[in-house]
Amino acid sequence: MPMIRVEMFPGRTVEQKRALAKALTEAFVTHGKTTPEAVSIIFVDVAKEDWATAGVLASDKQ
Amino acid sequence: MPMIRVEMFPGRTVEQKRALAKALTEAFVTHGKTTPEAVSIIFVDVAKEDWATAGVLASDKQ
Amino acid sequence: MPMIRVEMFPGRTVEQKRALAKALTEAFVTHGKTTPEAVSIIFVDVAKEDWATAGVLASDKQ
Amino acid sequence: MPMIRVEMFPGRTVEQKRALAKALTEAFVTHGKTTPEAVSIIFVDVAKEDWATAGVLASDKQ
Amino acid sequence: MPMIRVEMFPGRTVEQKRALAKALTEAFVTHGKTTPEAVSIIFVDVAKEDWATAGVLASDKQ
Amino acid sequence: MPMIRVEMFPGRTVEQKRALAKALTEAFVTHGKTTPEAVSIIFVDVAKEDWATAGVLASDKQ
């Protein structure tokens, strides 16, 4: 049943998402004591202009 | 006040979303004892390459 | 794959949650063209002091 | 550590998001007793056809 | 329609949440060009043992 | 900047959460090409009576 939602900057390739899905699932199976089939993962791209820290948009920090 | 957030694969038409909004609201009014005006629903499309189960992207399962 | 997350005021009984889960799933299967097994639902209780509209906590509106 | 997630209709400009990020952070620092660096904000655009209230899509209310 | 969800460490008083709700709503009305009635806010307490950065639980950082 | 939110059944110990936080962060650093400091993780316990699949509460499936 673990539902893992990942918000991240855009730009990861499908290959990276493939590897992330596999590695995050394995990490959860090993340390969270569950089965791979129980683990769901959603990736959500958040543009740098839509993510702020300390009051400043990430797109304004470069 | 119920806030219903639905994450789903892309592809539902506006007509389907219209019908879903109506039916989900009615279900909640009937069984959750609230009023239609209190119910908010958000639909979020999640691409198959962004949704993994058992460590495998949905886009890799076809 | 639809993941439905419902935020609502506390107080619904297990029976109400049971009926809501069944009805929301049926609504999605009928209008969202999916199978019951694909539908996951999470209920999240939000206390009235933690939910504000128009700048006022719901617990202050009674 | 406050993580603020804002779901809103599309259409705000980068300038508005810049001002919102600054103002929301200041509001939190002042009233939530934290530091600007601790505050993260994510903006999520939700199309009017994906947001329903009282069982009706926002895009159908105009 | 803005829906603002705030995840934060536990411990804010009702008075602080009252002030936060007011200030966050005002910030959004001013800079997001909307009305107070359109703004909903949800506060979610997250225990320090449930929040990690750099792989370390916040509860382990004191 | 990756923000990882994990919804799971209650019952994991602090030790398990500690190990999960470490392993999930490492998985992301390795495959998501980021730094440990950029990764935040939130664990959210969801009771079995609040999680349904195929229209049936998890608490009713035992």
From TrEMBL, chains A, B, C, D, E, F:
InterPro entries: 4-OT-like_dom, Tautomerase/MIF_sf. Residues 2-60 form the 4-oxalocrotonate tautomerase-like domain. GO terms for molecular function: isomerase activity. Keywords: Isomerase. Signal peptide: none annotated. The keyword tRNA-binding does not apply. The keyword Nucleus does not apply. Belongs to the 4-oxalocrotonate tautomerase family. This is 4-oxalocrotonate tautomerase.
